[in-house]
Amino acid sequence: MTRHPLRLNLTVAGILLATAGLAACTGPASSGTSAPTAPDLGGPSPAGAGAPIAVLGTENFYADLLAEIGGARVAATSLLNDPNADPHAFESSAQTAMAVADSRLVIVNGLGYDAFMDKLLAASPSTTRTVVNVQRLLGLADGANAHIWYDPVTMPRVAAAVTAALGTIDPANAFYFAAREALYLASLQPLTAKIAEMKSRFDGAPIAFTEPVAGYVATAIGLQVLTPKGFEKSIEDGTDPAPADVADESDLLTGKKVKVLLYNSQVTSPITTEIQDLAVSSGIPVVGVAETIPAEYPDFATWQLGQLGQLEQALGGG
């Protein structure tokens, strides 16, 4: 699948009309919205029994975080949640516009990854909506690797911002959100421990990418990425890599200069499929990494641990 710029399929006027005439989104929908179920993390019960707060994480891993921290006090929705779709080819609809308009708290990734949200948010301005822009939260400059949820520092920082925002929206339940944040952070501890364990075993191990989806976690483990920068940048931008970069990437595999090939399992193209096939034929293990939580994983932490387990097995020669 070839990447395309994220694009909007509605005019601003059309979005405003749609948001005025449609009812609130309360569940999964075929047009791209999905509502995670708040997990039972234990802890205290919320105060009161008012209507849940509409919240939206543009990507499903941010919606998962919102559901886990907000618990019974939120109704969480995501827009980018199809593991078989290219997130960069997302097209909005009246229903997705409505979901944004109704939300009191929204998380956007930034770094151009979900730029379509700028127009959706502008189409339904609100003085009572809080927007958490993760790029700005982390202080990242434009042009940084957009897959920042793979950085171990990201989700704890987002969790803190979400807990503070929900506490402002619903002060009576600030204690409830703080307690659930603590439980959410505890659920990330096995992930932190696995990264530390893998760093102790595989620091400096050479690997190759098709594109740097898992670049941040690879850095955290200490893996040495040998893929030409021009190759991975071209794949990420949806353009054809230079022949010299393709040759260098291929040589990493045929020459067995890397231990693993990490490839984007969600967004493929003829050249990435060719590289993956070359790795297999050269006896190099391949590990897929996705851009959204696949359906077989119940939450962010389980997903990330699952992928790390596959990478650990490949690096260990198992």
Attribute tags:
318 residues, alpha/beta, Rossmann fold, 2 domains, 4-stranded parallel sheet, 12 helices, 8 strands, globular, disordered N terminus
Describe this structure in words.
With 318 residues, this protein is α/β, with parallel strands linked by helices. It has two domains: 12-188, 3-Layer(aba) Sandwich (Rossmann fold); 203-315, Nitrogenase molybdenum iron protein domain (Rossmann fold, 3-Layer(aba) Sandwich). It is built from twelve helices and eight strands. The strands form two sheets. The chain has a four-stranded parallel sheet with strand order 2-1-3-4, sandwiched between helices. A four-stranded parallel sheet has the order 6-5-7-8, sandwiched between helices. Helix 4 (116-123) links the parallel strand 3 (105-108) and strand 4 (130-133).
Instruction: Please state the overall shape, judged from the principal axes of the Cα atoms.
Output: globular
Largest sheet: 4 strands, parallel
Strand order of the largest sheet: 2-1-3-4
CATH second-level architecture of the largest domain: 3-Layer(aba) Sandwich
Count of distinct structural domains: 2
The helix/strand class is alpha/beta
Q: Tell me the helix content.
A: 40-55%
Radius of gyration: 20 Å
The top-level CATH class of the largest domain is Alpha Beta
**Mean of residue pLDDT values:** 88
Number of helices: 12
Q: Order of helices and strands, N to C?
A: HEHEHEHEHHHEHEHHEHEH
| CATH topology grouping of the largest domain | Rossmann fold
Estimated share of beta-strand residues: 5-15%
Low-confidence regions:
1-31
How many strands in all?
8
Distance between the termini: 30 Å
Per CATH, the superfamily of the largest domain is: Nitrogenase molybdenum iron protein domain
